[in-house]
Amino acid sequence: MRDVIEIETKRLKLRRLRMSDAQRIAQFCDDPGVGRNLAATPLPYLPSAAEGWIMITHARAPLGRDFVYAVDLPGEGLIGVLGAHQRGDGFEFGYWFGRPFWNQGFATEAAGAFVSEAGKLGDLQAGHFVDNPASGRVLAKVGFAYTGETKTMFSLGRGESVACKRMRYGPAATRSPSAHEALVMH
User: Fold this and answer.
1) Is the pTM of this model over 0.85?
2) Given its phi and psi angles, is residue 138 left (phi above 0), alpha (psi -120 to 50 degrees) or beta?
């Protein structure tokens, strides 16, 4: 992951974030359907917040603890973001997609390609709020399995704590076929 510049799938390109992504990130994350399912995204979500987040992501990149990628759809541009962030001895995987791009397989395609690389970092975990089972289905399709643990996590977008089901990335045999179809650019 440390030397991965971009990842291409059948329909998508995963690349590093750019400042020019801020407006589109703000547009999608300001949608309560998106923002309320993220832990660290306040609502409303302004372009200046997206710019600050991109700057922080760029500043932290040399530390090798955060790997964040924009998901581009040719002809459309950025449609989502995914990343892995070091938490203790492992990494936490997370993602979001703009509402117009839900239910089209983009999350599964991008996440499958991403975690096939991110899994090389070591222990990879994820979670989803209990009232967002669609996210759990995407995670299961790309090789995550439920740990049986549910933790309370604060959501800035909701302004309250919410139960979060925990998952861990599993063995290679359970991974999505799309993960093996990705082209990785170093």
Assistant:
1) yes
2) alpha
